[in-house]
Amino acid sequence: MPEVKVINLNKFGSSMGTRELGSSIREEVLSLIKQGNNLLFSFSGVSVISSAFGDELFGKLFIELGEEEFKNKIKVNNFDNEESKKIILLVINNGIAYRRNNPPDTK
Amino acid sequence: MKEIKIPKILSHNTIGEVLQQREILLQIEECKPSDEIIFDLSENESVSILGILLIAELSDFLREERKCNCFVRTKKGSLQLYFPRIMGLIKRDRPNQEIENYLNEIRVPIQRCHNDKESLDAVNRLIPIIRRELNLPEPLLKALNWALWELVANAGLHGYRMYGKGEFDYPKPVYFCAFDYKDFIDMAILDVGCGIHASFLKSGKDKYKNISNAEALTSAIKESETGDPGGSTGFGLYGCAEIARKAKGKLVIISGTDKLIVSEQGEKLLSSGNFSGTMVLLSIPQKSAIDLAEILGKDNITVVSSLDDLIGGVDAGG
User: What is the pLDDT of residues B126-164, one digit of tens each?
Assistant: First the structure.
């Protein structure tokens, strides 16, 4: 049974928007996945994320892992409220949708 | 000494006059080291947030690149003193306690960011101040927080992130600020990057090969349209435009030789003074009921079988 590593995103701030941050977190979590871990992104204390951040972290992760592995290994939880949950999930979804439809840009 | 006359009412309608003077000042022969440049606000009745950012950017450039001395002239005792203060331009040789007290209460200075780390810190410093000072409805604050990130990420991409990629010889900062003005909150952002038009032209996409400056601005607010060569969702300016429309506010984009104004009434394209970078103003009534999720979810295609598939069942704890 793979261990679930929790990534507390609030350590980076109450909102996140830069590609650089999304990219550095992605690199960090990819090495955790390669070690056989599953991941849980905790959004406690995070109000919103930008499209660029959502794309850089989750969109590119979706492409790098592939749909099945992404669904099996990546989970999100611990939203502050329903509204934050809705917004953050939609941003993540839009990032994934974009990357799935534009795979050459992930290179 | 050179004096830069600022229009009495410096709004996005009159910012072209400052842009014209900026064009002249940027010519090397116009400004030499140790020249004294005065931005004259002494007869000014109002200054928009975009105007403040533009003066801040111009004075930074003249000081840092041309080694000029830049100052702002205001009426003594005027509350406008706080504009130069936030720009760091005020001559503080005659302190006035009353004004000083007022100035010290202004807690939303211009944010100058030279990299992503500074942007991250600045946005996360600014939003709690807006929350505390303006007491906005939480959904509106979330929408503004998201919009600010979209604008900052765009500006950074075309500003400091181009440094070292053969575009600029130094990391050009991104400027942003937020003011409450009457019943509105105004957020503005400025970058001196390549501008929206050049961004579309450089994207390498066939459909943008012959795009005009005006077309680039109107395309930028359409969903999924982007000139970002690295690829992006194209959701940022589109989402900001939707927020402006639904909130009965206004989005103003100035880039190149055009200005685009988006509101509930539609889109208005006007010519502007030439600005090689991009300025964006988002002006929103403070009592707006905005549902950001509705905007983000419009035409949404769910890519995992259900978004709930992503929700994990493990308690993340601390």
Answer: 888 888 878 889 999 999 999 999 999 888 887 776 666
Q: Where are the alpha helices (DSSP H) in chain B?
A: 15-25, 49-66, 82-87, 97-105, 116-134, 138-158, 195-202, 213-220, 236-246, 292-297
pLDDT tens digit string along B72-127?
777 765 655 556 555 555 444 444 454 455 445 444 567 888 888 888 888 888 88
Q: Is A77 on the interface with B (CB under 8 A)?
A: yes
Residue B283 host element (H or E): strand B266-285
B17, B7 contact by CB (below 8 A): yes
Q: Mind listing the domains of chain B with CATH numbers?
A: 1-106 (3.30.750), 107-299 (3.30.565.10)
B77: left (phi over 0), alpha (psi -120 to 50) or beta: left
Burial-class residue B221 by CB neighbours within 10 Å (0-12, 13-18, 19+): buried
Residue type, A47: S
Give the closest-approach CA distance of B88 to chain A in angstroms: 27
Token pair in block for residue A56: 């850089």
Chain A 2-41, residues with CB within 8 Å of chain B CB atoms: 4, 6, 8, 12-21, 40
Domain count, chain A: 1
| Structural domain harbouring A88 | 4-106
